[in-house]
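Any chance you could type out a protein's amino acid sequence plus the matching backbone structure tokens because I've never seen that pairing?

——
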Amino acid sequence: MAVLVITGTGTEVGKTVTTAAVAAVAVAAGRSVAVLKPAQTGVGPHERGDADEVARLAGTVTTLELGRYPDPLAPATAARRARLAPVRPREVAEAAVKLATEHDLVLIEGAGGLLVRFDDEGGTLADVATLLDAPVLLVVAAGLGTLNTTELTAREIRRRGLGLAGLVIGSWPGSADLASRCNLVDLPVVAEAPLLGALPAGAGARPPAAFRAGAPGWLAPALGGTWNADAFAGSC
């Protein structure tokens, strides 16, 4: 069962665009891909969510949302305020297993960070990964402050006995500052995991065809791309 759980060190670090890049590379390689968004918050009933954005950028993928809540809050809080049923980790795992019987790759994109609560019992994306015994891809920020949040999240992933597939920088600035350049070396050290890609800032705003053409160059071979961490660091 090929399932990859994609989380981030926080909000707005580039989880959705990273999910889209991983999906685009897999689709281009001829694999069937499903994107599962357990809980979508901050959008109305008829608005486009993160899974829709992945499909727009990546191409032909199956998308599934299990819960949608209008307030831009943690899923448990948003569900409670909307007086709607929350999404629970076991439901997410069951949906992923079903998708995996019909697709070569299932990508599960979380909301916020690893320990953001889905329900009032404390269920999280980490629990989903545990139920599925699935590796976790961690999307991180490029600049100052990222080392602390990256190390904390990586430590929690390892504490739970989960596999950390690696790190992807979700938005690499066009003109990198000193902290960002140094972090190319320091991020893999603090996370004890390889750096598997860096997406250029604004990648999600590119036309879909340009996004799909660029995606392999943003991801390392472990994710199906051609990106090389050493070469990238040497060019910055």
